[in-house]
Amino acid sequence: MLGLESVLVKPLLNEKTSKETETYNRYAFVVNIKANKNHIKSAVEKFFDVKVLNVRTSVLPGKTKRAGKGFKKTGKSKKAYVQLQDGQKIEFFKGI
């Protein structure tokens, strides 16, 4: 069982996710690989005090990288796209 504190790793802030935020009120997070949609929904609702409508997840496979003469594989990660109700939003940077 995952604790709610360990579900969300960090928010994804790039051009693609900011466009989805403006258009569909959808936010992206990097989450723990073992977290399911119910864990993600409850964690976002608890930490940001919003109502979540939909959660979509995707698992990104690890990449093969060169390391000297050999190769190493990076670990896989998981992304979650969380859609909020109309009129609600998450502010990552308050006071800036």
> Structural class of the helices, strands and pairings?
alpha+beta
Question: Any idea what the radius of gyration is?
Answer: 15 Å
Amino- and carboxy-terminal Cα gap: 36 Å
Q: Largest sheet at a glance?
A: 4 strands, antiparallel
Q: Strands of the biggest beta sheet: in what spatial order?
A: 1-2-6-3
Q: How many strands in all? A: 6
Structure annotation, total helices? 2
Low-confidence stretches: none
Order of helices and strands: EHEHEEEE
| Helical content band | 10-25%
Sum up the overall morphology in one term. Answer: globular
If you average the pLDDT, what whole number results?
Answer: 93
Give structural notes.
The chain is globular. Strand 4 (64-67) and strand 5 (70-73) form a beta hairpin. The model has no long low-confidence stretch (mean pLDDT 93). It has a four-stranded antiparallel β-sheet with strand order 1-2-6-3. Strands 4-5 form a two-stranded antiparallel sheet. It is built from two helices and six strands; from the N terminus they run βαβαββββ. 23% of the residues lie in helices and 36% in strands.
Short description:
This protein has helices spanning 15-24, 37-48, and strands at residues 8-11, 26-31, 52-60, 64-67, 70-73, 77-84. With 96 residues, it is of the alpha+beta class. The strands form 2 sheets. The protein has a 4-stranded antiparallel β-sheet with strand order 1-2-6-3.
